[in-house]
Amino acid sequence: MSRARTAGVGEITDSRNAVFLLNNDGLPFAWSWRARVSLRRIVQHHENGITLPMRYHTVASAFVAGAIAALSASPALADIIEVGGAAVVAEPPSNIALNQWESDTEIRGFFERQTTLLADLELNHVNTGLVDHESLLVPGFISAGTAVQSYLFHADSVDGFDALLSGYVVFDAPILGVLIKTASMNGTDDFLGRPGVTYGNSPGRRLELPPGSLDTFEISADRMRLDFTLKFGAAYDEIRIVTAVVPEPGSLALLSLMGLTGARRRRRA
Predict the structure, then answer these.
(1) Which residue has the higher pLDDT, 183 or 32?
(2) N or C, fewer C-beta in 10 Å, the chain?
(3) Helix and strand numbers, DSSP H then E, in the chain
(4) Are 194 and 185 in contact (CB under 8 A)?
(5) For position 266, what pLDDT does the model report?
(6) Cβ atoms within 10 Å, residue 247
């Protein structure tokens, strides 16, 4: 069974009371050339026992202050950045059970919630690639303690007439996996569902993959896009998508600065 989890960017480290930011290669990183030069010189000269002129500390301190503010903010909300085909983003009514939110032309999707998992979450499928047969499902789980976001796409035809629609959705955070089975969705409504929305628990609330029906879906190689084709009629189709939480812009490693700004210039012994 595969394990899906979010990955952090960089590490928090302490090195000889120096302040600088690291990228994943362990090198000082900055948004501007001037700040990068200042940070590198401060780090290099501090380790050699030399204090640079205050102008370098001023530039670097301003940069680090901005970085601290960004890093201390709460995780950003992941979002749907594109939909296409029959897929649309729509605000759900208070009840989306069978025959309550119908359309013959749209597969309607919406954000449900962001949460931190209190227990491992089992997913019906976690792999990338096309799933056009029941045998291709690869279940997995997300570990307890992981911050996730959930989205639901819903297809329910008017008066139960058969419909066949295709669409896609693109997120700005990686897709960790999907829930497509009735029991899995019914069992996660309480902690992944949109508060205030009644989902219903019809036995047909699921995707029916070939050979039983014509529903298919595909998670892209970069995990940012989901394509789907849904055939629905008397029963409604739903798919719950679980994504990672968007990392903060410039989420980099921060090293503590202690006493550099007040240091006096020293000559190398």
Answers:
(1) 183
(2) C
(3) 4, 15
(4) no
(5) 40
(6) 16
Instruction: Note the pLDDT of residue 160.
Output: 83
Tell me which residue of 92, 94, 90 sits closest to 197, measured CA to CA.
94
Provide the residue ranges of all domains of the chain, joining segments of one domain with +. Answer: 2-73+249-254, 80-244
C-beta atoms surrounding 124 within 10 Å: 21
| CA–CA distance, 146 with 144 (Å, rounded to integer) | 6
CA 194 – CA 197 distance, rounded (Å): 6
Confirm if 260 and 57 have CB atoms less than 8 A apart.
Answer: yes
The pLDDT assigned to 71 comes to: 42
Asked if residues 107 and 228 have their Cβ atoms less than 8 Å apart, the reply is yes
Which are the contacts of 193, defined by CB distance < 8 A and separation ≥ 6? 112, 113, 150, 152, 199
pLDDT tens-digit readout, 121-164? 999 999 999 999 999 999 999 999 999 999 999 999 998 889 99
Instruction: Flag whether pLDDT at 73 surpasses 60.
Output: no
Q: Which residues pair with 5 in a beta bridge?
A: none
Q: Tell me the pLDDT of the chain averaged across its residues.
A: 75
